[in-house]
Write a structure and sequence with these properties.
- With 666 residues, the chain is of the alpha+beta class.
- The protein has 4 domains: 66 residues, OB fold (Dihydrolipoamide Acetyltransferase, E2P); 312 residues, no CATH class; 54 residues, no CATH class; 84 residues, Nucleic acid-binding proteins (OB fold (Dihydrolipoamide Acetyltransferase, E2P)).
- Helix content is 29%, strand content 29%.
- Strands 11-18-17-14-13-12-19 form a 7-stranded mixed beta sheet. A 5-stranded mixed barrel has the order 1-2-3-5-4. It has a 5-stranded antiparallel beta sheet with strand order 8-7-6-9-10.
- Helix 2 runs antiparallel to helix 15 and helix 11 packs antiparallel against helix 13.
- The longest helix has 31 residues.
- It starts with a helix and ends in a 17-residue tail after the last strand.
Length: 666
């Protein structure tokens, strides 16, 4: 190549823009940052360079200033790859032939232009939910459509919908998805049954919460002639009904998970599939994906078969039904239930011995009236009936992952969505170890196994003590977050070398991916999904979004519930401390509120001591520490901010100070 031409090509190469893919985060000031995986610093985006991107969108950004080496990069968004939020809450301003929708948000979003025919009955000044239907290249604002008009009596309902919308979960399925699901036939063909292992004559039942409608797992019990017990874990065969890349599949992937709020479930799949076709309802033939285990008298697994089956559930149990059988020893299928529980106990004991951590924190749920208003609190704990199902599901998930891990394609592991959990981060662990020591719990940090043993020792000893909930929650926070990835490093919390999610395809998209990969292996035609890591990242992001939505909804219901107790006093436990105050959670209601440091100024000037997890008075030495019991008064309940404000109430015992607010002698 001539020298001149080579120089020209090199110049053109240098002019190639530097592009990154990441999530746009917009601050309150209006400045944007694109968070790019693998880059130490985010790419700065000025407000004029958002180019139709909103907060949370997955975007492609072109770097215009700086570089990755210097770490100070500025860029322009050149493409919106995926919108995080597709619907918005706001108000309409209606003119004669058109309207504008003004989004109710602190983030910069332009008003939508809404033609009169897309108002769908919305009137001037009404609060509505709207969505973007088009945004042409040269238009300054998008064209929108009103999805729903919100009336004043639906305020709590709107709050739940707004939480879902903000996290990018659609409130309904498209017509195309609904039509596709309605076309799936009810009847199972004889041809399909012949392709499967027929287990309809084997005793089978489901065990689920009392209000469950989507039964995605069932257990079968069969004593074999060789003396072994055959236990089947049968999972709804969702992948049979959903074709890859169909409208149903794309919709399920976008959501990636069902979302469980206090007053509703937002399913990943339409009810036609989740509650009818795939739900393993009693006295109906159902298509399933199964792991069938042969177990000897010692509880050892002697054989494991995997494949597609057809089952017929004999009975639907609730957890309460099974718990009663376990506690009383009598009931329907009592011998089988008690035997299964005995096996599950052995599995659990073995798991704990091999390094699993026994985190089983309390689950707080609200009792709701017919309008969805909270009228009481229910605290649910993990009992043996829950653990029976948990152990069998864990076993199936582990065995599937182990089976797949042995498969190679071109001398490389087959791409597969593992569920992994990393070892604790030392920076988070050390402060927690020091904090736990103050309560008499000592940790060995010599090895990951020692850390797990120390955690289990603490968790067993702390049961029923005032500091239980705080130590459990803080312990969970020290742990890494479990995620989906094709890069398997094992699951530290469970103590498994190989683990995946196989058992809930009705409500988790990664389980559908697992079924599909497993099918290619069992058909002796293993195939590599080159996009599996991308799908894992997306599924992990959607899982986090669902958790954020669930937390926000629970907080809203806490505020809604505590509104009726303004001025009332409660016993509480300090659950968090910061420089501006401390949080306390009421003992009976499990509702958390903030006690501002400014409300404590009448008693002392309190300073935050990070190492102590405490606010300590400069003059008095009084300390408010995580885990301390205090008495509080409810002084404010702000639904729009989802915020409870409490006031510390002093006992007569110590100059009006709470007995738990002791001198800083630790």
């Amino acid at each position: 190549m001539p020298r001149k031409e080579k120089k020209k090509r090199n110049k053109e190469y240098k002019r190639q823009p530097t592009l990154y893919k990441g999530r746009l985060e917009i601050t309150r000031s209006g400045m944007g940052f694109v968070v790019v995986e693998g880059l130490e610093k985010d790419v700065i985006i000025r407000p004029n360079d958002f180019n139709k991107a909103f907060h949370g969108d997955l975007v492609r950004v072109e770097v215009t200033k700086g570089d990755a080496k210097s770490g100070r990069m500025q860029g322009v968004i050149v493409q919106v790859i995926e919108r995080k939020q597709k619907q918005f809450v706001g108000v309409v301003e209606v003119n004669r032939d058109f309207a504008f929708f003004i989004p109710d948000t602190t983030k910069p979003i332009p008003d939508f232009f809404i033609p009169a025919n897309l108002l769908h009955g919305a009137k001037d000044g009404q609060k509505v939910i709207a969505q973007i239907v088009a945004w042409e290249k040269n238009d300054k604002r998008p064209r929108g459509e009103v999805v729903e008009v919100v009336t004043p009596e639906k305020e709590a309902d709107l709050a739940m919908k707004e939480i879902l919308i903000q996290q990018g979960f659609p409130l309904s399925f498209t017509d195309e998805v609904m039509e596709e699901s309605s076309r799936i036939p009810d009847l199972i063909s004889k041809t399909e049954i012949k392709k499967r292992r027929d287990m309809r004559d084997t005793l089978t039942f489901t065990i689920d919460p009392v209000d469950a409608k989507d039964f995605d797992d069932a257990i079968s019990y069969n004593k074999l002639k060789n003396g072994h017990l055959e236990i089947g874990v049968h999972i709804a065969d969702v992948s049979f009904y959903i074709d890859e890349d169909s409208a149903l599949d794309v919709s399920a992937y976008e959501r990636a998970t069902s979302v469980y709020l206090p007053d509703r479930v937002v399913p990943m799949l339409p009810e036609r599939i989740s509650n009818e076709l795939c739900s393993l309802r009693p006295h109906e033939d159902k298509l399933t994906y199964s792991c069938v285990f042969q177990i000897n008298a010692k509880g050892e697994i002697k054989d494991c078969w995997m494949g597609r089956t057809v089952i017929h559930s004999n009975h639907r149990f609730t957890y309460e039904d099974v718990q009663e059988i376990i506690e009383t020893g009598t009931g329907l299928y009592d011998k089988e239930v008690l035997h299964l529980n005995e096996i599950a106990r052995k599995f659990r004991a073995k798991r704990m011995k091999e390094g699993a951590i026994n985190f089983s924190s309390q689950e707080v749920r609200f009792k709701l009236d017919e309008k969805g208003t909270p009228i009481g609190v229910v605290i649910k704990e993990s009992k043996e009936s829950h653990q029976l199902i948990e152990e069998l599901m864990l076993l199936a998930n582990r065995m599937v992952a182990e089976r797949v891990s042995k498969i190679k394609l071109s001398d490389k592991p087959i791409p597969f969505p593992y569920r992994i959990h990393d070892q604790p981060d030392e920076e988070k662990l050390i402060p927690f170890v020091e904090f736990a020591k103050k309560y008499g719990y000592h940790f060995s940090t010599k090895s990951p196994d020692d850390i797990a043993k120390s955690f289990n020792d603490m968790l067993s000893r702390v049961q029923g003590l005032p500091e239980q909930r705080v130590l459990e929650q803080m312990g969970i926070r020290t742990m890494a977050k479990a995620v989906y990835t094709s890069k398997n490093i094992g699951h530290y919390g469970l103590g498994f070398e190989h683990y995946c999610h196989f058992t809930s395809p009705i409500r988790r998209y990664p389980d559908i991916l697992v079924h599909r990969v497993l099918t290619t292996i069992l058909d002796n035609d293993p195939k590599a999904d080159k996009k599996i890591e991308q799908k894992c990242i997306h599924s992990s992001e959607r899982e986090r979004a669902a958790m954020e939505a669930e937390r926000a909804a629970n907080k809203y219901k806490q505020v809604e519930f505590m509104k009726q107790f303004l001025g009332d006093e409660f016993d509480a436990v300090i659950s968090g401390v910061a420089s501006f105050g401390f949080w306390a959670e009421t003992v009976d209601q499990k509702c958390e509120g903030l006690i501002s440091a400014t409300s404590l100024l009448d008693y002392d000037d309190f300073v935050y001591h990070e190492a102590e997890y405490a606010l300590i008075g400069k003059r008095s030495g009084w300390a408010f520490r995580i885990g301390d019991t205090v008495k509080i008064k409810v002084v404010a309940a702000n639904l729009s901010k989802r915020q409870l404000d409490y006031e510390w109430i002093m006992d007569i015992g110590f100059k009006g100070a709470s007995i738990s607010t002791r001198k800083n002698k630790r």
